[in-house]
Sequence to fold (801 residues):
Amino acid sequence: MNNSSFTEPKKKRFRLPSWLELGLLGLGAFLLFIAGVSVIWAMVVPIPSIDNFQNRAVAQSTKIYDRTGNIMLYDVHGSVRRTVVPLEDVSPFIQKATVAIEDETFYAHHGFRPLAFLRAVLVNMRLREGYRGQGGSTITQQVVKNALLTRDKTLMRKAEEIILALRLEKIYSKEQILSAYLNENPYGGTIYGVEEASQYFFGIPAKDVDLAQAAYLAALPQAPTYYSPHGNHRDALDARKNLVLDRMLAQGLISEAEHTEARAETVDFRKELEAGIKAPHFVFYVREYLEQKYGADAVQNEGLRVVTTLDYDLQEKAEQIVERTAKSNEVRFNASNAALVAIDPKTGQILTMVGSRNYFDPDIDGMVNVAVAHRQPGSSFKPFVYATAFEKGYTPETVVFDLKTQFSTACSAEDPSNEPPCYNPQNYDHAFAGPITLRNALAQSKNIPAVKTLYLAGIKDSIATAEKLGITTLTDPDRYGLTLVLGGGEVTLLDMTSAYGVFADDGVRHPPTGILRVEDRNGVVLENYEDKSERVMDPQIARQISDVLSDNVARTPLYGPSSPLLFPDHDVAAKTGTTNDNIDAWVLGYSTGIVAGAWAGNNTPEPMNQISGLIVTPLWHEFLAYAMEKYPGEAFPAPAPDPSEDTLPPVLRGNWNTDPSRGVHDILFWVKKDDPRAGVPNNPYADAQLERWDWPVRLWTTGSSTQPTQGVRGDSIDAFHIITPAENTVVQPQQPVLLTAGGANIVNVTYYISGTQVGTSNTPPFAFTAVLPTRGQATIRAIAQTAEGSIVEHSVRVLVQ
Fold:
C-alpha cells in the first residue's frame, strides 16, 4: 500500500448531552459568582485596627466533660491569660526564632507565598481526616485568620485570607504584624502571647529571654499540648527546639558559636499551678488525642464539646486515695508518688486516670502523667508469658523445678554467677521450692519457674501475645531475652490495665478510649464511641489465667491467707510486680466488672527501700472495693475440663517423677518444647538448656545441693525414715544392700543412690535390693508419697570400702 495515499479516518467527537452541558455551565457560573462576591468582599471589607487584634474575645472555646456530660472538667479558654507588650519589649531571639520556624521569608514576601501554598494544597489533597493538614500560611495570613475570619477550611475562605493578607501588608509594617502575631499566639493551656508564656515557663519577661529559651517558645505553638514541657513528650520538644536553632543558623540569624551554646544549654521550666481544671492528667491525655485527630487549631478555637468516659465520682475517690497513701509510702518506703488507672473491661472506656499523687506538686514532678509513662513492670508481666505457654499446650498443673539455675549457654551449668554473660536469677526470697506447678509458680511469683516458662513459651510468641492484648511499647522483639518475664521491657500503666481487661472479658480486647462523643460548635456529632472489640485469646486460656490469679490458696505462701489481694465477697484476680532495682511497684487486678492498675515509686530513678508489690496493694484494694460497689462483677467462668487430660504427658498433669527408671529430670527431658503434648523428644539433650536445668535437679536429688528448699519434704518427714541401712553403715563394693523404709500412710517409695534412681517399691516395708558400685561415701535417698498426696523424704550416708 502506498503510505502517501493513506487517509486516516475521522474520529467522532464525543459530546455531552445538551442538558448536562447546560447544568455544568450553570454550576460553573454560580461558583464564579460566589468566588467573585467573596473576592469583592475581601477587597472592600474594612481592615480593623491591628492594635485590636490581640484583644479579641475567644467566643468559641472547647469544653471537656465527664461521662455524664454535666460536670465540666476543663474549658480550654476558661481563663485566658494574655499580656500584650510592644515589639521592643520582646527579645530579638524570640522574633528571629519565630520567623525562622514559622515563615522564613516573612520580611521578603507581601503577605502570601504561592509556592508554599501550592505545596500545602498538594499534601492536604492526600489527607482524609477532616481537620488535619499541612500549613502553608504566612505569619500575615495567620494574623488575618485569627482576627477576621472563621476557621472553616474551604477554598473560598482561603481566597479571602490571601487577599486580606495582601491588603494588610500594604497598610501595616512588618513589625506591627509580627507584634500582633506574637501577642496572639497560643503556647499551651490558657497561655497566650510571648509575654505570658515567658513569665509562665521561665519566670522572666519576654525581653529577657535567651536564645535557647526563645527556641523552646518558638517550638510550642505547632502543638502546644503535645510539646508541653510538663507532659510526656519532652524529647520531642527538645528535638523541635533544636530544629528551630538549626533553621536560625541556616538562615544566618545566629552564629555557629551561638547555635552550639544554645543547643547545649539546659533550660529549666518553671512549674506553676493551673487553676480551673478537674482530673488534669486525664484532661490533657484527652486533649492530646483531640489535637492529633482534629488539629491544635480546632481544639483551641472551634468550640468543640467533648463528653469523655471519665467517671468523676471514681476519679475523685481515686485522687484522694492516691494522694493519702503516696504520702504515707514516702515516709515508710521512700516511694513519693503513685498512679492509678481503671477501665471498664467490657467497653475499654477509661473510668479513672490519676497520673500522680498531685498534678500541682512540683517537688515530685506531679504534672508528669505516670499512667502513660514508660516503666518496667516487674512480675506483673508474667501472666502474658504463662498465657502463651497455656496456648502452646502446657497446663496450670505442669511441673517445673524451682531451683537456682544458670540459664546462659555462655557459662557452665554449675557457674553461680549472675554477671553478664551469665544469667542466674534469684527468687524474691532467695528460697527454692523444688518441683512446683505453673499455677503455684505464677500465684507465688516465683522468678526461676517464670524464666523457664518464658523459654518454653518463646520470647517472640510471648511478646506477640502481649501485643495482641494491648501492650504497644515492645516494638523490637530482638532486644529482649529471658529477663523479659521479670519485667525487662518497658510498658505503660494504661496499656497494662487495658491488657488485663482481656483476661477479665474472656479473651476479648476493647481498645482503651477516653471519648464518648465529640460535637462541633453547631452540635454536629463528629465522633461517637464505637465498640471496636476483637477476640484475641481463646476463652479457655483467659479463664485459666483468671483461675490462677484468683486462687487465694495458691498465693497464700507468698501473701498470706488475708492479703489486700483478697475480696471475700467478689471474684477478683490480681498480680503484683516489682523491679529488681526497687524502682517500681505494681499491682494489676480485675473482676468481670472493672479492671484497675496501680503503680508506686518515684518519678526520678530513685529506689524504694523495699521491693514488694504490697507497697501499692493497699491503695489498689481500697479503690477497687469502692469501685466494685458501682461496677459489680460476676463470678469468673470456670475453665472447661481438658478433653485430653487422661492422655497428657505426666509432667503436664503434675507428676514430676515421670519415669523412675530414667531418673529425675526437669520438664525439657519429658516434652518437646514447642509441642508439649506430642510425647518425649528423641534426644532431649539436643536442647542446650536441659543440661542447665538438670544440673541443680541432680544436686537436689543427691542431697548435695546447698540450696535452701521449701515445700518438698512435707510435714511428716520425722515419721518417714530409711530403716536399712543405718546412717554411716560400712558396706563392701558391689555388695547387694537391702533398702527398706517405714512411715505412716506411705503409698510408695523411690530410692536414689548418689543421685541416680535405682528403683521403686509399693509394698511395706518398701524393700528394694541395690548394689553400691562406688568407693567412698554414698548417699541413699528415699522419696515417698503419702496417701494424702504429699511428698516426704529421708537420706542416709554410707561408706563403701
Residues 1-12, 54-59, 125-134, 706-718 have pLDDT under 50 and may be disordered.
